[in-house]
Amino acid sequence: MKLTRSQWIKVVLALAVVLAVSACGKKQVAAPPPPPPPPQLFPTASLTANPNTINAGQATTLTWNTEHATDVTIDQLGKVDPSGSRTMLPSQSTTYHLVAKNAVGTQEATARVTVVPPQPPPPPPPTSNETEARMFAQNVQDIFFAYDSYDIEPQYQKVLQADARFLQQHPNIKFTIEGHCDERGSTEYNLALGDNRANAAKQALAPLGISGDRIRTVSYGKEKPFCTESTESCWQQNRRAHFVYQP
Amino acid sequence: MELTMIKRFAAILFALLLFASSNTLAQDWIRTGTGLGVEKIRLAVPDFKLVANDTGTPDLAATFNTTLWNDLQFAGIFDMVSKSFYPMSVPGAPQEVHLADWGSPPPNANMLAFGNIGIQGGSLNVQGWLYDAKNVQSPQVLGKQYREQANGANARLIAHRFADEIIFRLGGGIAGVGETKIYFVSNRSGSKEIWQTDYDGANQKQLTHLGTIALSPHVSPDGSRVAFSGMTKAGWQILMYSLELGRQVSFAGFGGDNYSPSWSSDGQSIAFSSSRSGNTEIYTVGAAGGTPRRLTESKAPDVSPTWNPKTNAQIAWVSGRTGLPQIYTMASDGTNVVRVTDQGYAVSPSWSPNGQFLAFAWVRHYGPGEPGASDIYVMDIASKQWAQLTHDGGRNDFPSWAPDGRHIVFQSNRSGRVQIYSMLADGSEVRQLTAGGENTQPNWSFK
């Protein structure tokens, strides 16, 4: 904004009055307080936290006192008054650090607040079992049998060796061996045949270092087939020892 | 045509088999048996005369007449004279009988069963007589009177009792099976449970509600309990259903899998198969539980024991010790093992009430690419002669003898899904008893 001519005059007059007033009153005004005398003493400082042990989420009161300091800072709070207190909500254990300074020197004080962390939720056991069950299913393969047989054929001996390696690495795992049969033949004989298949697998694992104490056997005979068509490939699927993780 | 020939051949073979046995056996069987080799008794059974009838209960006489006729026809020892040959006037009491009309052609009956039925004041009254139609001087063989509350079940009950009396009198002292039951496995509720039916397929009823798998029912000799195999959290266990209490009752649990229970005929012991020591073996245990006693010792499957009900001194069972399953017998202490079948795939033995025959399921010509039919066979244990009872294809399994020794119940998938059938012990008179769902493993009660 551009000042008009009359405005300029007002400003100049006002300044003149101010100058005149200040020039006139100078002798009457009291002298300003003298600057503090240069401190002669070393600063003192104290810092406390009460309580000094809290549970997470609880508050503690931080109290400090200093003398002779010209500059007081607390790390977590910045510049503070020479004395004071503050309510704090630390989320974890904290060491509060105060620095009091003056021209003579520096004094530090610390206060430690221990925060008890909340009980960590126990790792859900199912998760671990699920992992174990998944690993079991991936690593322990079923074995298959010829018609009316509970003899373990050479290729399945190899499968059992691989199974045993995994089971030895996981000695706490317990498991069930289910014996299954194809749909041919009689219900009761197939139950017995299924038990003999499960038992044959259990017996074959013993010399491979897998204790029978870890194994439960059960027969399903032809009551729970994996495949329900009346074909040889389907029947082969059903003549098996099926390994099941026991949670 | 060819089928009939085969049947006839089998019938002749069966007759020969029976004659070939010891004299007492032959006599016993012929007199009490299916009538093979002898002429059947011609029996006339006119409908009982309705002498009184409360309003609203018209079907009881019809129920009674139908049941009586079916029971007598089922017995297998009578040639039932067709009703179209009967005289116009049907007797309801002795004074109304003109014996000459019945004993001479066209009916030409040997025996005449007749009587009257009255439904009065809520009670059902039946009088029945059995007359020897050829003995004009002293014709009466039986005279019976029955009184029960008037309802359909009692109409059947009275008919069963009168039929059983006639069969007992004319069938060599062996009672009929009118009041017997058959226990079996059915999946019609969604899972395999134990069911019960009258011998003729009437009154089918679910017993167990296990919800898992129930198999192999076997009723106790006194008809109070049914032992069966049930899948539990502890694997297969022998479970017990009380027919008196109408619920499952506790029985001893054993380690491993336990199944195929069989009662001794004295009700003292149960034989069963158990994997408690690893491989399956036959054990016996007291009917009240206790420690099982092991009878077999072989690596192979051993299963499906059945007692000789005449002596309880022998057990027949199935073993795979020589490869495919075969039938064996042993003493009930496990000694004296004898192989009974010589080839094929032989399972599911049932010992006849007189101790002389084994019924079982047999695929005689088993081999790769040769599916072979599973059929029901009967073998005379002493001579090892056998006769084939089923020929009609399908898989036939789990024969079980009726207490009269004249009938066998079994399962077959001859008409598609597996169902339960009864037949005479010569393979004739096949009747289908079940229809809904799949029905298996029938067991005929001891009485």
Q: What is the residue-averaged pLDDT of chain A?
A: 85
The secondary-structure element order of chain A is HEEEEEEEEHEHEHEHE
| Strand line-up in the sheet with most strands of chain A | 2-8-7-4-5
CATH superfamily membership of the largest domain in chain A = OmpA-like domain
Radius of gyration of chain A: 44 Å
Tell me, rounded to a whole number, the average pLDDT of chain B: 90
Which band does the percent of strand residues of chain B land in?
Answer: 35-45%
- For the largest interface in this structure, which chains are involved and how many residues does each contribute? A-B, 20 and 37 residues
Uncertain residue ranges of chain A: 23-27
Gyration radius of chain B (Cα, Å) is: 23 Å
**Could you estimate the helical fraction of the residues of chain B in percent?**
10-25%
CATH topology name of the largest domain in chain A: 60s Ribosomal Protein L30, Chain: A
Number of strands of chain B: 30
